[in-house]
Amino acid sequence: MGRLILVTGGARSGKSDFAERLARQLGGEDVVFIATAEARDDEMARRIAAHRQSRPATWQTLEAARDVGRAVVRAGEAATVLIDCLTLLVSNLLLADGEDTPPERSEAAVEAEVAALLDAVRASPATVIVVTNEVGLGIVPVNRLARQYRDLLGRANAVLAKAADEVYLLISGLPVEIKSLALRGNFP
After folding, report:
1. I want to staple 39 with a disulfide (CB 3.0 to 4.6 A). Which of 45, 102, 173, 180 is the partner?
2. What is the CATH number of the domain that holds 12?
């Protein structure tokens, strides 16, 4: 059975850097990187290119804008799988059929994606590290689509955090392992 580590925090908090260092520490050269980003504009294309260049050349990269559970299965016997990131995966699912997708359909798609990911993690021999953003600490978004996104990602994060063996929150580049803190308080 695989081990699940969730890495969360705000934008530019150091999540990806921390997750990559952790993946290198746990898997060395035997890491499969699952990238969920889609280049919907030039700025995102530049970000994707920079991320590709920063990863070790020995790591295998799988592109999976959807069906991340299937990509975990494709990773085979890798020691470590790094998924960066759930935030973009949920966005991809939310926008798959355009901005006017019925909320129930988006919710069902995200729930199915997270369930498939957890099934794949349980069946994998790997340590799977998932990077995600914590988007629920700010103001309530002004438009329906942004509120729907915040809610979908928040629920997906909660499901993964509950299933995870370790959960790290990054604040200003500093990782704090929060799952063990929650368990010490005997929270369900």
Report:
1. 45
2. 3.40.50.300
Query: Which sequence positions are flagged as catalytic?
Result: 51
Residue 13 in marked binding region: yes
Stretch 129-152: mean pLDDT = 92
Q: Is 35 annotated as a binding residue?
A: yes
Tell whether 91 is in a known binding site.
no
Domain of residue 146, residue span: 3-184
How much of the chain, in percent, has pLDDT values that exceed 70?
97
Can you read off the two tokens belonging to residue 34? 């699952």
Quickly list DSSP for the chain: --EEEEEEESTTSSHHHHHHHHHHHHHTT-EEEEE-----SHHHHHHHHHHHHHS-TTSEEEE-SS-HHHHHHHTTT-SEEEEE-HHHHHHHHHTTT-TT--HHHHHHHHHHHHHHHHHHHHH-SSEEEEE----TTSPPPSSHHHHHHHHHHHHHHHHHHHH-SEEEEEETTEEEE-HHHHHHTT--
